[in-house]
Design brief:
Oligomer: single chain
Structural class: alpha+beta
Largest sheet: 5 strands, mixed
Shape: elongated
Distance between the termini: 82 Å
CATH class of the largest domain: Alpha Beta
CATH architecture of the largest domain: 2-Layer Sandwich
Strand order of the largest sheet: 6-8-9-11-10
Strand content: 15-25%
Order of helices and strands: HHEEEEHHEHHEEHEEHHEE
CATH superfamily of the largest domain: Histidine kinase-like ATPase, C-terminal domain
Length: about 350
């Protein structure tokens, strides 16, 4: 029979072995296989306790939850997992044998494992942030290149379109007696005007339109846009709510382009909102910038759409419903004002577009 000293030594060896195993698991952890990582940690932790057969482990993290058993917890100890000094989960060790008790050394063991797991989660968060930043930089580069290409295309198309429109209008004046031919020329004129508007949007995207920067109060622009779009809201059976922090939200901007930002975002929100859905328009300010948010209750964006949403000609609308230039135009205008625009899916449904524009 072992003495108390031998029993205590055996338990210490088990605890040290557990910490070594957990450290090895975490060092070799694969972010894409967190279930296996948590499972390995839980099994190793069980072996580190005095009564491994009666010990059950629950590991709760922001990424996943792992349980060695679904039994009710009665006799247990717990330790918090901190990620960058913020509580982001916990590990619970429970004893299913009511007569068994925890050793005083087992709480520090649990604390040490949560510390190591917290380090792993911090490492994962850093990697995710690095990947996200890299994607944003790549997208900004792509948009910059597209902007240059788009500007060239717009300039090349402008002159021939103006000629088509001019000659078509001259031809129409000579066809008053020929109704059929006159109608055909009307179609030419109509399509030329439509094409010219597309070119204008391309130039907005490429920031090639002249700007008249002046101090503007964004609030009247928001209210005017909503008033003009009231019929669209009613036609689509969509409601709206406006939350404006202050009646005077001043910034330096081009009034026409500012209106274009607001119009495009609200029209987009109306289009994707279901009947009975709600569009929320918010405007507020910080010391340095004005923040405009437009939220809808639509289906939200897929990962692919999230990556490409501001690229010209990308659209999730059916063919014929959109040119795919609206949001790219908004992006171009915002960029030309040294601002930023982001989009994220809401927690329940829909998406939120956030525009930040500097006050000066």
């Amino acid at each position: 029979m072992m003495s108390k000293t031998e029993i205590a030594l055996k338990e210490r060896i088990k605890e040290l072995t557990c910490l070594y195993e957990v450290s090895s698991i975490i060092v070799n952890a694969d972010v894409g296989a967190m279930t296996e990582t948590l499972r390995a940690i839980a099994i190793s932790l069980k072996k580190g306790f005095q009564f491994p057969e009666s010990t059950e482990i629950i590991i709760e993290t922001p990424l996943q939850i792992y349980k060695t058993s679904n039994k009710d917890l009665k006799n247990y100890i717990t330790a918090t997992i901190n990620v960058f000094n913020n509580p982001k989960g916990k590990i619970i060790a429970s004893l299913t044998n009511n007569e068994a008790t925890f050793l005083k050394e087992e709480q520090p063991l649990l604390d040490n494992v949560t510390l190591k797991l917290g380090n792993l989660l911090e490492r994962i968060e850093i990697q995710q942030n690095e990947r996200s930043l890299k994607r944003q930089m790549e997208r900004a580069d792509r948009l910059g290149i597209l902007g240059e290409i788009t500007a060239g295309i717009a300039h090349e198309l402008n002159t021939p379109l103006a000629n088509i429109l001019g000659f078509a209008e001259l031809l129409k004046d000579n066809l008053d007696s020929d109704t059929t031919a006159s109608e055909d020329v009307d179609k030419i004129i109509s399509n030329a005007i439509f094409s010219r508007e597309i070119v204008k949007k391309l130039m907005f995207f490429a920031c090639e339109m002249p700007q008249e920067m002046q101090e503007v109060n964004i609030v009247p622009s928001i209210k005017n846009a909503i008033a003009l779009l009231d019929a669209s809201f009613k036609k689509n059976g969509v409601k709206y709510i406006v939350k404006i922090e202050d009646e005077t939200l001043l910034l330096k901007a081009d009034t026409i382009q500012l209106t274009q930002i607001i119009f495009n975002l609200i029209i987009n929100a109306i289009y994707f909102s279901p009947k009975g859905g709600l569009v929320t328009i918010e405007a507020q300010q910080t010391i340095n910038c004005i923040i405009l948010k437009v939220m809808d209750e639509g289906p939200g964006l897929t990962d692919t759409a999230m990556e490409k949403v501001f690229q010209p000609f990308f659209t999730t609308k059916p063919t014929g419903d959109g040119s795919g230039l609206g949001l790219s135009v908004v992006h171009g205008i915002v960029a030309s004002h040294n601002g930023s625009i982001t989009v994220e899916n809401n927690e329940n449904k829909g998406a939120t577009f956030t525009v930040k524009l500097p006050k000066s």
